[in-house]
Design brief:
- This protein is an all-beta fold.
- Helix content is 0%, strand content 48%.
- The chain is built from no helices and eleven strands.
- A hairpin with a 4-residue loop joins β7 and β8 (78-83).
- The termini are far apart.
- The relative contact order is 0.31.
Length: 124
């Protein structure tokens, strides 16, 4: 069982930066692949980024590649999402999630554990 708690969301102007954190409970955090998803109002949840358990492989959706960076600190049971050059279209609730296995195409159904989400709002 893994419990996830996100933090770091807020209101920022376009072009600004935010760093999201996701703190995980449990001693087996390092065995899980971690991901970030987001859901804008009235839209479906979408994949943002993922990092494998070892931290040596990351994945991004095209719209954030080069602007967002996912990382993890297994000693602190925490995964991060550094978001730079934010755009109004990045506005959404961001969710952290944990998966025991990942396929080639990363989808939400691979993730068994989810946090409660943190709101990110980017003003123009």
């Amino acid at each position: 069982q893994v419990q996830l708690v996100e933090s770091g969301g807020g209101l920022v102007q376009a072009g600004g930066s935010l760093r999201l954190s996701c703190a995980a409970s449990g001693r087996t955090f390092s065995r899980y692949h971690m991901g970030w998803f987001r859901q804008a109002s009235g839209k479906e949840r979408e994949f943002v980024a993922a990092i494998r358990w070892s931290g040596d492989s990351t994945h991004y959706t095209d719209s954030v590649r080069g602007r967002f960076t996912i990382s993890r600190d297994n000693a602190k049971n925490t995964v991060y999402l550094q978001m730079n050059s934010l755009k109004p279209e990045d506005t959404a609730v961001y969710y952290c999630a944990a998966a025991q296995s990942l396929g080639v195409a990363i989808v939400g159904s691979m993730f068994a554990y989810w946090g409660q989400g943190t709101q990110v709002t980017v003003s123009s």
